[in-house]
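Field reference: "sequence" (input) and "structure" (output). Example, Palmitoyl-protein thioesterase ABHD10, mitochondrial:
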Amino acid sequence: MTDPRFHALPDGRRIAYRHTPGSGPAIVFLPGYMSDMAGGKATAVFDWAMAEGRECLLLDYSGCGLSDGDFADGTLSRWREEVLALIDAHCAGPVVLVGSSMGGWLMLLLGLALGDRLAGLVGIAAAPDFTEWGTTPGQKADLAAGRTVFEDNPYGPEPTPTHPLFWTDGQAQRLLESAIALTCPVRLIHGQADPDVPWELSLRLSAQLRSDDVQVILIKDGDHRLSRDGDIALLLRTLAALA
């Protein structure tokens, strides 16, 4: 892995990133909610890209990992702006977006913004619209009233917060109720033992995408993280075949 560098946005936000040059299209990894570029899947993709001489970009959203900011201020719109700024600054040609969980929602929003520069999408337990299907009516009422919701976190000691700003923005960014105007090749990998994001959601997403080149890959015993050696090997094979 290369050492992290920092990209300064016009408002002073400093976004941590790692970039390795190489042949294209550039592979851009989008972490999940409260995750960062130090995760196992992100580092595996970056290491593979370096070994293969492929261009790759990792980053931490503001309020996450090494980047500046408060997580409570984070929204899909804000993080989309940051990723677009880094792509424009460091990737000259087409890109393949790899999105994990919430990153799979963000990759769709970014894909719509990138237009002809988008060469492909790889979703890993992609979770579009989870502010809608992932919150109860009571939680929605609390969030709409400006109250942060906390839930048990199976992946760490601290509860997982959902902040009102993120939820409100997410509700405005929902995609699954209508056709999604993306025509690039798409690969959706999902574990059928995922306790957090129903695997059927990848089938629903597949149906809504305008592209005819969509494949859904189900792993019967796969969990949400899909970080086992075999899961990562499948991800890298899928990425190599697509990119």
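The CA atoms of residues 197 and 234 lie 19 Å apart.
The longest strand covers residues 23-30.
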